[in-house]
Write a structure and sequence with these properties.
Helix 1 (3-13) packs parallel to helix 3 (36-54) and helix 2 (22-34) packs across helix 3 (36-54). The chain is mainly alpha-helical. 59% of the residues lie in helices and 7% in strands. Strands 1-2-3 form a three-stranded antiparallel beta sheet.
Length: 148
């Protein structure tokens, strides 16, 4: 580590080594232990930190708090309903459920030999207590047993 980099670290993070970047901490401490000029820079930063620690810290005024809160970004209704979700995830889930439903319905119709383009009339006239489905276009009639 060079003295110039140590000076940048001290200016950015102060004299407390615990606040220094972890990747450079050991190298900076080693430089300060070997080089009297670097040790003096660290001591100066520590003295400045101690001076800052003596300064009183007041709570923010109500006016400042109100101004900060007034300028914060407002969440949209979508973000309030789905706070940690990308907008496309619920829409993709709905689309997948819709596609699955249409696919299952189509597969079931193929399995039963139904033509989905035909209109179907339901007859309540019982033949042996069974409901009969009759296509309006004159196709083959299906009984309840055929469907179940």
């Amino acid at each position: 580590m060079k003295t110039e980099r140590l000076a940048e670290i001290l200016a950015a993070y102060g004299g407390d080594p615990l606040r220094w970047p972890e990747a450079e901490r050991l190298a900076a401490q080693g430089l300060a232990a070997r080089d009297p000029r670097a040790a003096a820079m660290v001591a100066e930063a520590e003295a400045l930190d101690a001076l800052f620690d003596l300064a009183p810290v007041d709570a923010p005024s109500a006016g400042l708090t109100a101004r900060v809160l007034a300028r914060r970004p407002r969440p949209t209704l979508w973000r309030e309903l789905f706070p940690n979700t990308a907008f496309w995830k619920p829409a993709a889930g709905f689309a997948m459920a819709l596609a699955l439903g249409v696919g299952l319905q189509s597969a079931a119709a193929d399995q039963l030999g139904l033509d989905l383009t035909d209109d179907v009339a339901v007859s309540d006239q019982a033949v042996d207590d069974q409901t009969t489905l009759t296509p309006l276009s004159g196709g083959q009639a299906l009984s309840e047993e055929d469907v179940l």
